[in-house]
Design brief:
15 helices, mainly alpha, 301 residues
Amino acid sequence: MPLWIPITIAAALCQNIRTTMQQKIRGILSVDGANFVRYLYGAPLALGALAFLVWGTGRTVPTISWTFLLLVTIAGVAQIVATSLMIHSFSLRNFTVGTVYSKTETVFVALFATFIAGEPLAFGSWMGIFVCLGGVAVLSVRGKLSDIRGLLADLTHKGAVYGILSGAVFAIAAGTIREASKLLPEGDFIIRGITVLACMNTIQVVLMAAYLARRDRPQLGKVWHNWRSSIWVGIFSVLGSAGWALAMTLENAALVRAVGQIELVFTFISSRLVLKERPSLGEWIGSILVIGGVVLILVTR
């Protein structure tokens, strides 16, 4: 099995945990504040991991160019905007709408890879992406197949619009992360992936801190005051982001993000284990669609 696959699955699991925690602290912080904790508490961990790789394992930081920094900055800003849009879509409608429409990211990433990055996908991979998206839709409405018609019909609702926009901007982030990693000339995929993450998270902290200081200064104090709950968002965020960065260093970003749809299956499994509920037929169908789409992507890539 290619190494990028288990890395992607681990990243999806961490992202699932982070999103759940981020939504929970949304009752304490604003949209921007909940977004900021992801980077504030994640950046030191990313920089620490880079320091360990350099001084602990003898690796060297790859040569960083201005083009690399530009791409990393674009990726960082895109990730900030996309996360804010996604959290905002949750508050406008609900977690379901925000989740299912943000997952359109996989289609946008595939378009980016094909027409901009010059990494076209096989026809089977495209089919797998759409099969995964169908499974995500089913799981997002908890397997109630009759709800999907209303969910997909309500494309003009603000919550849906924000969700789709977040997917498009997340695609920009994923594509530029992939392109930035390709610009690093030296080192193995680990040092290159962590270098991308450390640079991006540092830029994000600086930009968001400056933004909040100007537009919503009280949030800075709230973020610091609620560090006990916020720090876990940062920990799982950096673990997930590290996984995405490492996987995208190894493989086409579109394939990585498509396989990452397995995140919704983790949600399905964990809710059943915790709540001890019997899954509905629709939920089984959604899980099978996601897993089947991932398999289709892997066998046809």
